[in-house]
């Protein structure tokens, strides 16, 4: 199927000479949730801003729904809703009016029934006549989403949707985003919160220093790059790992009290049974054991570190 967004060889050099994006290739499928992860200054906002037509690219091309974002700007832009981090609208306007007004900016005829539907979907309907300044932080974020949806876009970009919000509100937002996807909207979000990408995304792109380091289905990424560790707490501290256990590449931590065995969970054999037998053979008695699966965070940190 044709991707809803196709980015090819996209580069951006700012006037200062700084290269914020270096040859990005990326395709987004209709209906997916794609999370763009990266450290500060990686180029996430620049990439989104180019796709949304706010910043010009230096090189490369982007199509949205088959429309070139430069030659066919209006058609491309009308398919996109962008949820910025901050609410900058008039604080004295009502929720309903601000959302309706945004729809008008896209040249769409008024459609109060549609606006009411979005407000209901986002649990803002009760607040439709309230002024923006009367809303809580969480509600203001929902208003941002309502505004971005006001012109019935196919694609929604969310820039750091839960930056600085508390845990329960974050979970609320995740629910809202999931519902939007169920309604057929393609979602692209940038986030610093790895937990957010782990929780929400179908696919993940990791960007660092203007390069896309990888794009993978989340499940594949966790499986491919994730290693598992077995931690064995021993009864008597060890001064060194006995020679007979050399093939396991064990790490000795915690002043000799913990042995760490790293294994590939995809591998045919983990060799755990053999390790336990060999430990016994070596006279090492185990007090406790624990396994640990590397998280998306471990994977992210090691990838970005490798690049630096
Ligand atoms: N107008 C500009 N002129 C020069 N450099 C810029 C400009 N805008 C952004 N940059 C630089 O480009 C790089 C990428 O910025 P960008 O905002 O895209 O990163 P980001 O991944 O969104 O970061 P953050 O997570 O901090 O928002 C940064 O080093 C930034 O300083």
UniProtKB/TrEMBL annotation:
One of its GO terms (molecular function) is ATP binding. Pfam families: ABC_tran. Signal peptide: none annotated. Residues 5-234 form the ABC transporter domain. SUPFAM superfamilies: P-loop containing nucleoside triphosphate hydrolases (SSF52540). Keywords: ATP-binding, Nucleotide-binding, Transport. InterPro entries: AAA+_ATPase, ABC_transporter-like_ATP-bd, ABC_transporter-like_CS, ABC_transporter_ATP-binding, P-loop_NTPase. It comes from the Bacteria. Belongs to the ABC transporter superfamily. This is ABC transporter ATP-binding protein. It comes from Georhizobium profundi.
